[in-house]
């Protein structure tokens, strides 16, 4: 008992910004991902009408790093109170985007704010991690379950945009954090049962035609070549062209011919894989894996349960993004418009990824204890 009290006091007096080797490694890996993203984006948009996106992405990467370091050095007490305010703001913006949002490819996901487009669902993704962490760390069992359902309910607004990928992401994060909580396991089984029962109903009566086509095309892509699977088939051709070691930077035949639509966003992995091959792709996956497990390795050793839930939430977001994006580029998962963190072109998404990494590192910093360097 005395040892526990001493350990608790030690944590309370611990400085918030004492970096370890692994913290520096996480920051370095994020910067490396940003550089990889810029190099790949440059190869995709050069000599095209989209070349301006390269300069824009540099700006957003700088902003993302700034936000990341702001969160790292912000006071812990303030960060814990941000969730409810950001959540309220994001829900308001989700309503506004349905009313006044800019329509792109039949979807209202962005609000035009002069020099840039704001994507409210990205802010909602960030705020839900903070809010659910507060709920699961303060409430128990029935209350935690009910409050968490209320928290993720605005995901329905995201679905109406429509944005199936982001909707599934929010539900995935909620479910993973629910599994990690002390909520009665009966609720978990209930959620799974409801999900299984609603899946076929949603497929036939809720999803739009193009969404169903993307799912069906997984099983027979050639039959849906012109409608649901063109991007995926071209992506697979380009990736296969890279082989084991890649064609070399700037020498990707498929990338240079621009045969993959939206290659600077959803399908940028195909450009990277063609130029750097399977070896380069495995290195990229290893970088993501290090970041994801960087938070999970400390489970049980965080300062409090709030930061444990934050770590689980952030890790689940990156896991979903990486698996879904690479999966849809390889044609083994449906196309959902989920970007590859720090690699795909994007403003709001890049900044939010920076903010999430800031949370992950902050969780580690406030929980320093005299243990091994990881």
TrEMBL record:
<feature type="transmembrane region" description="Helical">
    <location>
        <begin position="343"/>
        <end position="361"/>
    </location>
</feature>
<protein>
    <submittedName>
        <fullName>Cell cycle protein</fullName>
    </submittedName>
</protein>
<dbReference type="GO" id="GO:0051301">
    <property type="term" value="P:cell division"/>
</dbReference>
<feature type="transmembrane region" description="Helical">
    <location>
        <begin position="118"/>
        <end position="137"/>
    </location>
</feature>
<dbReference type="InterPro" id="IPR001182">
    <property type="entry name" value="FtsW/RodA"/>
</dbReference>
<feature type="transmembrane region" description="Helical">
    <location>
        <begin position="85"/>
        <end position="106"/>
    </location>
</feature>
<dbReference type="GO" id="GO:0015648">
    <property type="term" value="F:lipid-linked peptidoglycan transporter activity"/>
</dbReference>
<feature type="transmembrane region" description="Helical">
    <location>
        <begin position="21"/>
        <end position="45"/>
    </location>
</feature>
<keyword id="KW-0133">Cell shape</keyword>
<keyword id="KW-0472">Membrane</keyword>
<feature type="transmembrane region" description="Helical">
    <location>
        <begin position="272"/>
        <end position="294"/>
    </location>
</feature>
<keyword id="KW-0812">Transmembrane</keyword>
<feature type="transmembrane region" description="Helical">
    <location>
        <begin position="306"/>
        <end position="323"/>
    </location>
</feature>
<feature type="transmembrane region" description="Helical">
    <location>
        <begin position="57"/>
        <end position="73"/>
    </location>
</feature>
<dbReference type="GO" id="GO:0005886">
    <property type="term" value="C:plasma membrane"/>
</dbReference>
<dbReference type="InterPro" id="IPR018365">
    <property type="entry name" value="Cell_cycle_FtsW-rel_CS"/>
</dbReference>
<dbReference type="GO" id="GO:0032153">
    <property type="term" value="C:cell division site"/>
</dbReference>
<dbReference type="Pfam" id="PF01098">
    <property type="entry name" value="FTSW_RODA_SPOVE"/>
</dbReference>
<feature type="transmembrane region" description="Helical">
    <location>
        <begin position="144"/>
        <end position="175"/>
    </location>
</feature>
<feature type="transmembrane region" description="Helical">
    <location>
        <begin position="187"/>
        <end position="207"/>
    </location>
</feature>
<feature type="transmembrane region" description="Helical">
    <location>
        <begin position="228"/>
        <end position="252"/>
    </location>
</feature>
<keyword id="KW-1133">Transmembrane helix</keyword>
<dbReference type="GO" id="GO:0008360">
    <property type="term" value="P:regulation of cell shape"/>
</dbReference>
């Amino acid at each position: 008992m005395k040892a526990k009290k001493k350990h608790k006091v030690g944590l309370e007096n611990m400085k918030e910004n004492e970096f370890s080797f692994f913290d520096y490694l996480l920051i370095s890996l994020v910067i490396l991902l940003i550089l990889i993203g810029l190099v790949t984006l440059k190869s995709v948009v050069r000599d095209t009408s989209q070349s301006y996106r390269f300069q824009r992405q540099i700006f957003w990467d700088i902003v993302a790093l700034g936000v990341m370091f702001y969160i790292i050095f912000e006071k812990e007490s303030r960060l814990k109170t941000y969730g409810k305010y950001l959540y309220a703001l994001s829900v308001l913006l989700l309503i506004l985007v349905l009313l006044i949002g800019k329509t792109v490819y039949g979807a209202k996901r962005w609000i035009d704010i002069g020099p840039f487009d704001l994507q409210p669902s990205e802010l909602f993704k960030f705020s839900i991690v903070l809010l659910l962490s507060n709920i699961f760390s303060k409430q128990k069992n029935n209350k935690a379950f009910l409050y968490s359902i209320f928290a993720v309910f605005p995901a329905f607004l995201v679905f109406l945009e429509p944005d199936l990928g982001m909707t599934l992401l929010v539900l995935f994060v909620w479910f993973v954090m629910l599994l990690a909580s002390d909520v009665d396991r009966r609720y978990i089984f209930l959620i799974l049962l409801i999900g299984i029962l609603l899946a076929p109903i949603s497929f036939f009566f809720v999803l739009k035609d193009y969404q169903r086509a993307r799912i069906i095309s997984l099983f027979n892509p050639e039959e849906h070549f012109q409608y649901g699977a063109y991007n995926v088939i071209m992506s697979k051709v380009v990736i296969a062209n890279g082989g084991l070691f890649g064609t070399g930077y700037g020498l990707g035949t498929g990338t240079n011919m621009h045969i993959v639509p939206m290659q600077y966003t959803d399908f940028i992995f195909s450009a990277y894989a063609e130029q750097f091959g399977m070896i380069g792709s495995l290195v990229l996956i290893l970088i993501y894996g290090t970041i994801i497990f960087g938070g999970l390795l400390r489970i049980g050793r965080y300062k409090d349960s709030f930061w444990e839930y934050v770590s689980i939430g952030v890790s689940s977001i990156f896991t979903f993004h990486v698996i879904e994006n690479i999966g849809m580029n390889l044609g083994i998962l449906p196309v959902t418009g989920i970007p590859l963190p720090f690699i795909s072109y994007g403003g709001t998404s890049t900044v939010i990824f920076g903010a999430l990494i800031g949370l992950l590192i902050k969780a580690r910093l406030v929980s320093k204890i005299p243990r091994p360097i990881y």
